[in-house]
Amino acid sequence: MIKEESRNRVIMGIDPGTNRMGYGVLEVSEGKAKCVIIGDIDMVKMKDPYEKLGYIFRRVAQLTDEYQPDEVALESPFFGENVQSMLKLGRAQGVAMAAALSRDKKVFEYPPMRVKQAITGRGAASKEQVARMLQQMLGIEYDPKRLDATDGLAVALCHHLMTSSPIPTAPKHRTPKRGGSWERFVAENPEKVVRLNRATRK
Questions:
Q1: How crowded is the C-beta side of 22, counted as CA atoms within 13 Å?
Q2: Residue 179 included in any domain
Q3: Residue 91 falls within a domain, yes or no?
Q4: Which active-site residues does the annotation give?
Q5: In angstroms, what CA-CA distances link 55 with 46, 87, 89, 95, 121?
Q6: Among 4, 23, 59, 159, which one is least packed by beta carbons within 10 Å?
Q7: Domain count, the chain
C-alpha cells in the first residue's frame, strides 16, 4: 500500500483478459516512474463466465482500495475475426472499468498498438519485446510466463508517458522516427538543415 505521507502520482494499468487479467501499479515522483507491484488475476480454473466477471470486479475493487491510484488505465479490446472472443474481452474490460469507477477513479483507455508504441517505439512489437523494454526502463524481473502482468504494467507506463509530455513519444533513450518539434530536429541535425537550406536556394 502507498504511504500517504510520501504519496506521489499513482497509476494502475490493467490488461483485460478472461483467463488472466494483468495489472501493474506505478508511483511517479518528479517525472520518474517506479513499479510498486505487478501481477495477474488468475481465472484459468473458473468455468462459469459470470463467475469470472464477478471475480474481476471484486479483485479490481480490492486493488483499487489497496493502492489508491489517482488514475486507472485500461487496454481497449482489439478488433478481430472472432466475435465471441471480442465480446468476452469487452465484458471483462467493462467490469474492470466499472470496478474502478465505483471507487470514483479516473479511467482512461488505450488501444494495444498505442501501448506498444509508447513503450517500444513500435506498434507491432511482441509481448516479449514489451516485457524486455519494461525490464530495462523500470528494473523489473523478466518472466516469459507472466506476459499478461507486464502488459498491465505497460498500460500504466503508457498512460504516464502520454500524459506527462506535451508531445507523446517513445521512451527518451529511443529516438522516434517521426514526430517531435522542429526546434529539436534543428538542434540534433544541424548538417541536414544546412543541406536543406542550400537545396531550396537552387
A1: 18
A2: no
A3: yes
A4: 15, 75, 148
A5: 10, 18, 14, 10, 34
A6: 4
A7: 1
